[in-house]
Amino acid sequence: MVTLVLWVLVFCLASAASIVLTGDRGLISGNLLAPKNAFALFFHWKFIVAMALAVVSRLTFILVNNSLLSIPRLARNSTTVTTLILTLSYVFVIGANALWLKERLTPNQGIGAALILVGVIVITR
């Protein structure tokens, strides 16, 4: 169970960091379909790091799924349960965007985050 929690945490942090990096207004503003701008985007350090973190997220998805196989009551539907558990990353993304991108957290986002937390508790019981 400790391993599962560790992999979920790694997934959530990697996903949130990847999204924060690619959500930088300086990086995503302008016409990204213009060849010059697309080229600049693909070789920008934030984009490269964000893509590496996205790969880490996919790998940890597999590791979370693998960890669930060792929990008999969750093993039969491990991929579905993995997907539901990893919705926790949305909570991390909302918090990270508020903290680093200075986005305002709305009451609806707070309620949504709370519902996600409750949902994860319900499906893993």
Would you write up a description of this structure?
It is built from 8 helices and no strands. The protein is globular. Helix 1 crosses helix 7 and helix 4 crosses helix 6. It has one domain. With 125 residues, the protein is mainly α.
Quick tags:
globular, 0% strand, mainly alpha
Describe, in short, the structure shown:
By secondary structure, the protein is mainly α.
Question: What's the Cα radius of gyration?
Answer: 17 Å
**What structural class do you assign from the helix and strand content?**
mainly alpha
Mean pLDDT across all amino acids: 90
The count of helical stretches stands at 8
Residues in β-strands, percent: under 5%
Draw up the topology in text.
Elements: H1 2-22, H2 25-28, H3 35-42, H4 45-68, H5 72-75, H6 78-85, H7 88-100, H8 107-124
Helix pairs in contact: 1-4, 1-7, 4-6, 7-8
